[in-house]
């Protein structure tokens, strides 16, 4: 994204991206508590200007994250009560998540042990060599693009993170760790609106989606 402001704190629709995501989790009747993992230098800002200022009463802890996403999830899991059955992981930079997505993924995790929101691949997929030439076209039918929220049995997820940390395994999402541990992961079809803000143009798209929902009262 560039610039001096971290992308989760960039403003869309008048509020930081993370606020939009937290509002959905705060409103969801299926979510009992929230742990917010943030850069160590932003702990005070997040506690005062994000959590307290916006009345996010479900936020039980604001913890310092780590160098990588996986480290941040592990740090957050460390403060989750052992009585919790299901843990939901969500990216702060996915502001267009809905309560329905959260409900569906949690219900699936309760039934299956692990579940994620994802989208079937719609574009033609090319495998390209180091010379920039196409090597082959890959069948897109079995390919899905993983999103968040993702929900898991707490004990499965904590065990997976402990083992991965001990063995130095790096993963780009938590579902991979569950797969690695041999657990089946249920896939639910999500929405193209559930974008991850990674580029400047995503800010424009996020603004349009949130403005449209606001106009429709959803």
List keywords for this structure.
single chain; globular; Spore Coat Polysaccharide Biosynthesis Protein SpsA, Chain A; 4-stranded mixed β-sheet; alpha/beta; 218 residues; two-stranded antiparallel sheet; 7 helices
Could you characterize the architecture of this molecule?
This protein has 218 residues and is of the alpha/beta class. It has one domain (7-216): Spore Coat Polysaccharide Biosynthesis Protein SpsA, Chain A (Alpha-Beta Complex), CATH 3.90.550.10. Helix content is 38%, strand content 22%. The chain is built from 7 helices and 10 strands. It has helices spanning 17-27, 43-52, 69-77, 99-112, 154-167, 174-180, 200-216, and strands spanning 11-12, 15-16, 34-38, 59-64, 86-89, 114-120, 125-128, 134-138, 144-153, 186-189. The strands form 4 sheets. A 4-stranded mixed sheet has the order 5-9-6-10. A two-stranded antiparallel ribbon has the order 1-2. β1 (11-12) and β2 form a beta hairpin. α3 crosses α5 (154-167). The protein is globular, with a radius of gyration of 18 Å. The two termini are 28 Å apart.
């Amino acid at each position: 994204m560039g610039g001096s402001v971290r992308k989760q704190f960039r403003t869309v629709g008048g509020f930081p991206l993370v606020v939009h995501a937290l509002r959905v989790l705060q409103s969801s009747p299926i979510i009992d508590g929230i742990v917010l993992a943030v850069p160590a230098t932003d702990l005070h800002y997040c506690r005062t200007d994000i959590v307290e200022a916006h009345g996010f009463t479900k936020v039980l802890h604001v913890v310092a994250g780590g160098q990588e996403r996986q480290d941040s999830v592990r740090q957050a899991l460390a403060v989750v009560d052992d009585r919790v059955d299901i843990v939901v992981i969500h990216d702060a930079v996915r502001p267009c998540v809905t309560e329905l997505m959260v409900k569906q993924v949690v219900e699936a995790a309760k039934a299956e042990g692990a579940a994620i929101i994802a989208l079937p691949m719609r574009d033609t997929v090319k495998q390209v060599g180091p010379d920039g030439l196409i090597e082959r076209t890959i069948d897109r039918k079995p390919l899905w693009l993983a999103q968040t929220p993702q929900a898991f049995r707490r004990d499965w997820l904590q065990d997976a993170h402990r083992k991965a940390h001990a063995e130095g395994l790096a993963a780009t999402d938590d579902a991979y760790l569950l797969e690695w541990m041999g657990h089946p992961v249920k896939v639910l079809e999500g929405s193209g609106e559930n974008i991850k803000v990674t580029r400047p143009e995503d800010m424009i798209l996020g603004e349009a989606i949130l403005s449209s929902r606001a106009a429709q009262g959803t």
